[in-house]
Amino acid sequence: MGRIAKRTRAAQDVAPPQPPAEAVCDDGRKTESDVEDHGDSDEDGLELSSDESVDTGDEDEHDSGDSSGDERGDASSSGESEEEREGGGKGDLSAEERERERESESESDVEEPDDEKDGLDVDVRDAVETYWRARERRAGTDVGGGRGEVDGDRGIDDNEEEEEAGKGDPVPHVQESDSSEDERPSRNTIGNVPLEWYKDEEHIGYDREGKKIIKQQRKDQLDTFLDRADDPKSWRKVYDEYNDEEITLTKEEIRIINRIRKGKIPHAEVNPYEPYVDWFDYKDGIHPLSNMPEPKRRFIPSKWEAKAVVKLVRAIRKGWIKEQKPKEAPKYYLLWEDDVQVSSKTVNGLAYIPPPKNKPPGHEESYNPPLEYLPTEEERNAYELMDDEDRPKFIPARFDSMRLVPSYGNFIKERFERCLDLYLCPRARKKRLNIDPKTLIPKLPKPKDLQPFPTQLFLEFLGHKAAVSAICTDPSGQWMASGSRDGTVRIWEVQTGRCRRVCDLGGEVRHVAWNPNPSLPILSVSIGNFLLLMNSGTGSKEVSESVDKLLTLVDKPPPRRSMENDDEGGEGGGKDSAAAAAAAASFVEWERLDLGGGVEGQALQIVHKYPVRSSSWHHKGDYFSTVAPDGLSRSVMVHQLSKQQTQNPFKKNQGRVARVLFHPTRPFFFVATKTHVRIYNLVKQQLAKKLITGVQSISSMDVHPGGDNLIIGSEDTKLCWFDMDLSTKPYRTLRYHKDAIRSVAFHRRYPLFASCGDDGSAHVFHGMVYSDLLQNPLIVPVKILKGHGIVNGQGVMDCVFHPTQPWLFTAAADNAIRLFCN
Predict the structure, then answer these.
(1) Cα separation of 807 and 454, whole Å?
(2) Beta bridge partners of 72
(3) Is 534 strand, coil or helix?
(4) What is the pLDDT of residue 282?
(5) What average pLDDT does the segment 421-436 reach?
(6) I need a surface site. Which of 7, 213, 357, 741 has the fewest CB within 10 A?
(7) Hey, where are the domains in the chain?
(8) In b/e form, how buried is each residue of 713-722, taking b as 16+ CB within 10 angstroms?
């Protein structure tokens, strides 16, 4: 803006019709207007050149004023001589040549001269150019407009401009600006066409001559950064996307932008507080048009309109008001519309269903049908012997001509019955769904992608003389124990099939279970009313000695308190009385047992009052439970091996107990009755959850190693998978067995589970449980293992997985134990 101010001052000094723009007082000091011309507003963010700064020193003020006055005098004289030369040269030029020369001068004015060229000659030349430009504009406008335009180019402060505008002088009206944007005509002539249409083209539009405006080659970010670093005016450049070029903003444009950012009027010469001009004519009118006060509806929002808008918005959101689209004419239509067209709807909105039409008459109903349609005499006699309901309604007959055809006697009756059918019988359209049966079958992965799992027979263990009722493996997977109805318990070596130990217990073995603690090779065996705890003898000598010491009989411990049991989960009863202690002491008896027959090691037996069906160990190996289904309130007992204590956790059982299990990681206890599975919290001593199985009789149960899933087998051939975090009802019910299921088992490492039943087969399933709670378990049947025989209606009695390998052991009623490997 300092450059524009210099041009303005020089133009006012040189122009003959105008007085000099600067005046010097008698004492040599500059006038007030001269100081204002030199001032540049700091808040506009514009820099002052070295010759535009105002010296504010008190001592050198008069000297600087004299020197500046001399310089202005020289500039004035040089300006006048230059004016004469320029005026004499330009006066003879035509208007077209003068316009072309002015354009070239305006283009040269875009580049601001360097600080080294800010001497006197440059100021004179700029002043002359500004003078001629103002003179040409003054030809079409008044002198005030030119003056205002020049004043607008000066680099004065905003506040000083406002103070001058507030004085007595009227503010001139700005006719046009010297903005570089106004001087540069728009080259692109595509109008309001979106530039996105040209994004794939080589040009960006067309100029006035209809020629394509080729897009400029874009620079990458590195070149752009280097150009900005080298160019000190890069902060003034703005990219014009419409014309694909960069525009350099002038100081006046930057000043306008700064005023807008400060919330001021862009042009300082505009007075926002001009006096009000009353446009009304009061010469002939003595009263206003109306004395009525302003109604509220003109400045207060209408409450009723707001309510109406709310109703309309609600109706649109709920779909009550829909956009009415023009109805499209059907592409295909019936040439002759009849009853076949059922797309039309009645007044009440229901689709019209045409009545069923009678079968058109065929050859048999002709008056002269072919001979093959005429019944024989035997058939006529048979029709007469039939009942009215079975007899055909029409019997073909032959006539020589239509005149001989008699009238139909049942015509009126049949028409009346048809009218009753059409009037009284409701009609409904049956929608036929064309569903491909293959789409109903879930897409499951192929079994070969789910390996490993047991597929073939690897080894067979023979030696029992009766049905093998139960099998189990030790935690290491090296040994396997089996119990048979011949009264013996055998311990086998898995790798070789060698029988290491045989214990003849003299009674039918119903269940065997190995202690899950590897340091305690103890085997629990259920025989009649006894639960036998014996040393398996598979450990080292030190381990065997510690087990014998643990199985040594100690004094009888005092009775433990019991836990309430009801469907609502009552709290445990902590009141111990003498009667309750006496009753608890009579639950079971711990006794020492001598196995005999050359069998080494200690053994304990727990004597129950009712036959023991099964037993289950806690994962730590100290607690174990027994099930005696006939014991009613004493059917479930929990024993502690280290202290040789027994407690009855339930005073009352909700049904006949079939199986119990400990949770693999948490203090929960699973109790399976005939139709339900109840889960108890041992810490809180209350019912946590009740699973509804939907089966008739539960025969077996097992818990997933993660503890969140449970499978049960039933005697009605159902295998139910429960996702206990999802629901209390089965997540999946599988029906692959043809007879009762005897046992189910989970693998401890692989995503496998198996079931076996009286149909002589064992089914292996892939059961993947994901850690993501939003993803359901994947259950895929992968293999059916057969080979066992059926004896007296009993097939495979028990199955168990190897603890580390994907192998499955099966025990059947044919006295054999088989090992299936992958």
Answers:
(1) 6
(2) none
(3) strand
(4) 67
(5) 79
(6) 357
(7) 200-230+237-244, 365-404, 448-553+586-821
(8) bbbbbbbbbb
Q: Give the pLDDT mean for 69-79.
A: 39
Q: Which range is most confident: 19-23, 342-346, 415-419, 583-587?
A: 415-419
**Beta carbons within 10 angstroms of residue 578's beta carbon:** 7
Q: What is the pLDDT of residue 348?
A: 61
Q: What distance in Å separates the CA atoms of residue 390 and residue 773, rounded to the nearest whole number?
A: 64
Query: 266 preceded by cis ω (within 30°)?
Result: no
Which H or E run contains 153?
A: helix 143-153
Residues 789 and 452: their CA atoms lie apart, in Å, by 26
pLDDT (tens digit, 9 = 90+) per residue, 547-559? 888 888 776 555 4
Q: What is the pLDDT of residue 356?
A: 80
Q: What is the DSSP letter of 501?
A: E
AA letter at 351:
A
Give yes or no for a contact between 643 and 657, defined as CB atoms under 8 angstroms apart: no
Q: At what angle do helices 2-14 and 61-90 cross, to 10 degrees?
A: 70
Q: Are 158 and 149 in contact (CB under 8 A)?
A: no
pLDDT, one tens digit per residue, over 648-666 is: 888 887 888 989 999 999 9
CA dihedral 4, 8, 11, 12 (to 10 degrees): -170
What are the tokens at 697?
């009789």
Taking the CA atoms of residue 65, residue 66, residue 72 and residue 75 in that order, the dihedral angle to the nearest 10 degrees is: -140
Cα angle vertex 659, ends 657, 664, to 5°? 135
Side chain identity at 811, as an amino acid letter? A
Tell me how far apart the alpha carbons of residues 244 and 252 are, in angstroms, rounded to a whole number: 23
b/e map 41-67, b = 16+ CB within 10 Å? beebebebeeebeeeeeeeeeeebbee
Q: What is the three-class DSSP state of 305?
A: helix
Are 250 and 179 in contact by the 8 Å Cβ rule? The answer is yes
pTM confidence score = 0.49
Pair of tokens at residue 593: 């047992």
Q: Mean pLDDT for the chain?
A: 75
Structurally, at CATH architecture level, domain 448-553+586-821 sits in: 7 Propeller (2.130)
Alpha-carbon distances of 638 from 218, 377, 634, 668, 680, rounded to whole Å: 84, 89, 10, 13, 13
Place of tokens 């122009």: 15
Report yes or no: 619 and 665 within 8 Å, Cβ to Cβ. Answer: yes
* DSSP assignment letter at 681: E
